[in-house]
Amino acid sequence: GLAYTWSKAIGFGANNDSGLFFNTPSALARNRSLLNFDRPHNLRLSSVYELPFGKGKSWLQSGLPALLAGGWQVNGIYSAYSGSPFSVTTSGASVNAPGNSQVADQVKTDVQMTGGTGPGQSWFDPLAFAPVTAVRFGNAGLNILRGPSYFNLDLGVFRNFAIHEKVNLQFRAEAFNATNTPHFNNPGATVSSMVRNADGSIRSLGGYTEITSAQADERQVRFSVRLSF
User: Fold this and answer.
1) Strand stretches in 35-142, DSSP E
2) Helix, coil or strand: residue 202
3) CA–CA dist 100, 19 (Å, integer)
4) Burial 169-204 (b: 16+ CB within 10 A, else e)
5) Ramachandran angles phi, psi of 68, nearest 5°
6) What is the pairing mode between strands 10-12 and 72-81?
7) CB hemisphere CA count around 197 (13 angstroms)
8) 69 SS3 class
9) Rounded Cα distance, 132 and 143, in Å
10) What angle do CA 222, 78, 119 make, to 5 degrees?
11) What is the pLDDT along the chain (229 residues), one digit of tens a residue?
């Protein structure tokens, strides 16, 4: 099976709920943006394949080879989709507008996506944004950057044993995230947490632009037996 979706999710309130990021009449139009669950590319490949060995199959139809090689089934699901969008924010103290959130100032026209993961590594250019200290909203848009893409492979190996005409025993071995690929979360995106030196150089990222966590979906292997009658 093959399924591919190309889509775009746009709405008011990037956090997927009824709450607005900008809750001031003059800035209401700025709430229209990509939603947090927007993933433009979504690919799924799935397969169920019964090996052609054993009684009634194309090869090894009798004897010990049929007994050992017959009844096997291999399954797989491969998933790949775009990362989720996120906004670069900053402290809203200078705005002094309860019920509103604050975005950073984008000071570079193009934001370089450096793709680093782990402490001290930047996912995007940390100097592309700056805190806002005036009584106004920042100029950056909502959900203009995107986090890591997602790739996952689930595998299964089944073996059927015909005990009786109407009784079947199935052994199942399944591996979720079989390749043990880490699925990283989005980076820290609060520019006001970054500490600068007097000359403008960076002294500490403070978690800003850093990816320091992943989803709790490391490889899991499960074995089971299923009796059907």
Assistant:
1) 41-50, 72-81, 85-86, 105-106, 129-130
2) strand
3) 10
4) beebebbbbbeeeebbbbbbbbbbbbeeeeeeeeee
5) -80, -40
6) unpaired
7) 4
8) helix
9) 18
10) 85
11) 999 999 999 988 656 566 788 988 989 999 999 999 999 999 999 999 988 876 767 666 666 666 676 778 899 999 999 999 999 999 989 888 888 899 999 999 999 999 999 999 999 999 999 999 999 999 999 999 999 999 999 999 998 887 787 888 889 999 999 999 999 999 999 999 999 888 878 888 999 999 999 999 999 999 999 888 8
Contacts of 200 (CB under 8 A, 6+ apart): none
Residue with tokens 């947090």, as numbered in its chain: 36
- d(Cα 100, Cα 92) in Å, to the nearest integer? 8
Q: What is the largest CA-CA distance in the chain?
A: 84
Which phi-psi region, left, alpha or beta, contains residue 143 (left: φ > 0; alpha: ψ -120 to 50)? left
What is d(CA 36, CA 16) in angstroms, rounded to the nearest whole number?
6
Q: Among candidates 33, 27, 30, 42, which has minimal Cα distance to 15? A: 33
- Apex 141 CA angle, 136 and 145, nearest 5: 140
Helix H or strand E encompassing 150 = strand 150-164
